[in-house]
Amino acid sequence: MRIGLRLQENSCRSIVLDGRTIVSAAREIQAGSLAEALDSALSGLSREFGSGVRDITADVGHVLATRKLADVVAVHISPRPPADVFHAARLPAHVEPAVSRTVHVCGGHDMRGRPLAQLDLEAFLTVLPSILSGNVRNVAITSVGSTASTDHETRIADAILSNDSEMRISISSDFYSSVFRDRDYTTVLNTALMATGEELAALLDAAGRRHFPAATLSFARNDGGRAPLPRLAVAPVHGLRPEPASAILGAATLARVPNGEVVICTDSGVSAGHIRDGLPAANSLIRQGYEASLASNAAVVESYTANHLIRPDVTSVIADLRTEQATPLPFGLVPTLPSAQDVALVGSAAAPLTSWIDRLETISGRTDLAAVQHRAEEDAQSAVVQLGANPGEIHIIESNVFAMPYGNPGIVRIRVQAAGETSSNKERFLAAEARCAAP
After folding, report:
1. Do 29 and 37 form a contact (C-beta atoms < 8 A)?
2. Start-to-end CA span in the chain (Å)
3. Which residue(s) pair with 361 in the sheet?
4. Which candidate, 101, 89, 99, 108, places its Cα nearest to that of 292?
5. N or C: which end of the chain has fewer CB within 10 A?
6. H/E run at residue 313
7. pLDDT one-digit tens code per residue, 317-352
8. How many other C-beta atoms lie within 10 A of the C-beta of residue 164?
9. Residue 368 burial (CB < 10 Å; 0-12/13-18/19+)?
10. Distance of CA 394 to the CA centre of its chain
11. DSSP labels for 404-417?
12. What is the C-alpha to C-alpha distance for residues 388 and 52, in angstroms, rounded to an integer?
């Protein structure tokens, strides 16, 4: 059996999922704490299900989104600093105050990985003592051309960690976007969330070991998958907005539909996404209007309108999740999944381990292209195995090649997603006779 948890500051809601049954439980402690709510929820589930639970996946997005961001030192690597304020990359308003200091270092690469300027490591070492002696323990390192070469970022990170191994560091090459502003924003935000990620990982690990010592603990990712709990302390930004993807996966799981369109109807409106080979179709960016985008793979979710394209050859799952279902759905929609089940929690419980390879490659022809794509698929599969998946339970969800713009022949972007399970998973697509109960 598998447990999906949703954590909020003073409450924890859970769903237990197996091949026949969904059991939902809410534990609200308004005057207590998140730790008390989590312990109460897991204690009750342990008494009922005990050793039958093998996987626990926590949706921590609500807590990450509401906690105050920690202060960050930003290290920008580029051939020269911005000429003036107008040319400086601006962070979104909710993140900008978290940057307490910005340090510029000369360096950076072009799209082919060639240095635009020699890394001025000596100049950085002269300011490093002032960084280490301050109260800020979080450093975000971003570099021009980091998608093509990580050399300058890793050398700066190594210089910091060799002097203080306790510093929390994020580097922008861990987050793919062709736009420096997106990578800068994502790296700063990830760094500012790392302390909260560490706290949540420790909290979940302690509660999990206490009540389910044999279970594997994970956190829900923005792409509809999950990652091992220790990764929450390193890459919390990928667990910031998992609910849209989890809802699509949960509805598809309940409807036993591994491929098709999923329409989610809630009190706030109607949205639509697609499920592909058992996971939501994903984009590499979470867009925010004219502000910087979040460089994290997340489900593609669109507003459903009267002009929505209907394809008769595509299976549709229509989930009516409104609190009041007496009135018809808009746009003439007829629910195929009428139960007001918490589909996002079902999705968290059903989520597989996922990994992405997203990088630039230089090729000289079709043979090179096939070779680099095959290598990326092998690397994605290997990454899922390293996360804990059984090698026999891994499959490729997406494998795409994109030409790069701006006159760069011979350079392509390779994007591959792999997913896997720790063991043979027969629980993903439930029997139709699911029931609800309150433990």
Report:
1. yes
2. 15
3. 412
4. 89
5. C
6. none
7. 999 999 888 899 999 999 998 776 799 999 999 999
8. 13
9. middle
10. 19
11. -TTT-TTEEEEEEE
12. 19
